[in-house]
């Protein structure tokens, strides 16, 4: 029995499947906000799809192909997608990616053999549609996750110029303020809370970054690089070196808390 396989169709189907699996892995690992990962996920999916075509076209040794796929190609795809992280978290990400792949294959097998939807599972348009809606599902997942974090106040200790102070902070799922100069997430502190700890001492090293907010279309806000920030989450502490802090004139929720945390600051604990 002979099968005719079209390389272009095989490539694109594998690309869309790889993209969904990698997107699920990145989301479950909670490594970064999804918009920053799109290019890396696409590149990783292209590598995986390209390797699948090479396997079909050139490789004849089944055992050797499996070794290369699971111990070389897979980890390379995962590394491209998640970037440089701690080794044990990288291994967890690889295992998560393979688990997602097996679950996806199992669902596809069940649909093909035990339902009347087999023609859908092997239709390339099906995977294209799934790949298109995957970023939407990622966005919903991130929003729900951040909203759950917003259900309580974080305790934050800031260290600057030899002084430290404790603040109450809220994680704002809509705060994706980043510094175009230093390239990191920016957290926002109320000026009155800052002055309560550090007084009216002159801030010598600061720069301005643009921002947008509700009630004001655009503006600039001063940003300073502090010495250290310690975020207490339940019984765990997240220690961030050289955090970026913007000073705002606005009171947050009528002064109920002093600081707005950038969600990426909370995710930094898994990306060191």
Task: Briefly characterize the structure.
With 272 residues, the chain is of the alpha+beta class.
Question: Any overview of this molecule?
Answer:
- The N and C termini lie far apart (about 50 Å).
- The mean pLDDT is about 75.
- The radius of gyration is 23 Å and the shape is elongated.
- It has eight helices and nine strands.
- It has a nine-stranded mixed β-sheet.
- Helix 1 runs parallel beside helix 6 and helix 2 (about 40-60) runs antiparallel to helix 3 (about 60-80).
- The relative contact order is 0.12.
- Helix content is about 50%, strand content about 20%.
- It is α+β, with helices and mostly antiparallel strands.
- The longest helix is centred in the middle third of the chain and has 28 residues, at about 85-115.
- A hairpin with a 2-residue loop joins strand 6 (about 230-235) and strand 7 (about 235-240).
How confident overall, as mean pLDDT? 76
Structural class: alpha+beta
Rg from C-alpha positions? 23 Å
Which shape, going by the Cα principal axes? elongated
Distance between the termini: 52 Å
Sequence of secondary-structure elements: HHHHHHEEEHEEEEEEH
Helical region count?
Answer: 8
Largest sheet: 9 strands, mixed
Give, in spatial order, the strands making up the sheet with the most strands: 4-5-8-3-9-2-1-6-7
Low-confidence stretches: none
Question: Helix share of residues?
Answer: 40-55%
Strand content: 15-25%
Record field, number of beta strands: 9
């Amino acid at each position: 029995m002979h099968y005719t396989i079209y390389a272009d169709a095989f490539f694109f189907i594998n690309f869309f499947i790889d993209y969904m699996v990698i997107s699920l892995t990145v989301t479950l690992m909670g490594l970064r906000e999804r918009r920053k990962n799109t290019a890396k996920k696409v590149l990783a999916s292209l590598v995986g799809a390209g390797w699948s075509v090479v396997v079909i076209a050139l490789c004849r040794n089944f055992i050797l192909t499996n070794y290369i796929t699971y111990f070389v190609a897979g980890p390379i795809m995962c590394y491209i997608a998640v970037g440089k992280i701690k080794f044990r978290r990288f291994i967890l990400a690889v295992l998560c990616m393979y688990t997602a792949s097996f679950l996806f294959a199992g669902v596809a097998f069940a649909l093909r053999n035990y339902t009347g939807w087999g023609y859908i599972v092997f239709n390339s348009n099906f995977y294209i549609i799934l790949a298109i809606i995957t970023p939407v599902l990622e966005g919903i997942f991130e929003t729900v996750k951040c909203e759950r974090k917003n259900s309580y106040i974080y305790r934050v200790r800031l260290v600057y110029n030899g002084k430290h102070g404790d603040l109450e902070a809220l994680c704002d799922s809509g705060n994706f303020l980043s510094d175009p100069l230093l390239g990191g997430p920016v957290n926002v502190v109320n000026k009155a809370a800052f002055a309560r700890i550090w007084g009216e001492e002159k801030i010598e090293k600061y720069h301005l970054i643009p921002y947008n907010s509700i009630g004001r279309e655009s503006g600039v806000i001063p940003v300073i690089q502090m010495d250290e920030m310690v975020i207490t989450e339940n019984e765990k502490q997240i220690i961030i070196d050289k955090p970026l802090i913007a000073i705002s004139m606005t009171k947050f929720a009528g002064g109920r808390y002093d600081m707005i945390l950038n969600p990426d600051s909370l995710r930094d604990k898994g990306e060191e």
